[in-house]
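To fix ideas, we close by showing one paired sequence and structure record:
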Amino acid sequence: MHSQYVILIGGISLIIGAISFVVVFSYLAANFDYPKVLDGSAADVLPRLRAGGARMRAVWAIYSALPLFLIVGAIGAFFALPSSPGLAATGVVSATVGSLAMCLGLMRWPSVHWALAEAYETGGPEAKYGIAAMFSGLNLYLGNYIGEFLGEVCLGIFFLLSGIALFAEPQFPGWLGISGVAFAVLFLIGALRNAVPRVQLIADINNYLLPLWLIVLGGAIAWFPA
């Protein structure tokens, strides 16, 4: 009985996380030119971040916490996939590492980047040069390598493992496992966009497929308990 509650909570968490992602992503796209702004310079981005005020900072703070829903969802998936405990357990670990990596990458915006934006506003030419260098370095390390590459690869592995495990569970329709594996492959390819720019289009498509798949997976877990 207790495991059924965990499964239900896990499925609902994936759905809530997906809907929240769409809402926050849409707000940032409309008010901060996200995700194109990620490629901008400090001179362009930091003043815009500062101009957004407390609301923009709060939105980024909320956005940075949303990946935590994936950890709860992965735990629910573990209990919903009892026929493949090894795959499901590895998926929980992978989802946890990926989610925390994404949180770490996104948290630079309401914390370090916000402090840089404040300093940039009143800094002189030499100070702004140093701030711009730090801004670029943080984007490369926390953004590209930690948040995007490590986070998305680990999350893609979770999607792949859970998609494979779905085939072994008779309560789930066959198309669900096929869809999970197919999306996982696309997600992993998109995670390589910083090293292989040609896959950027796939990464852009994944921004729309990710919330859709989270809703489908979360709904299936909640509707078809083990």
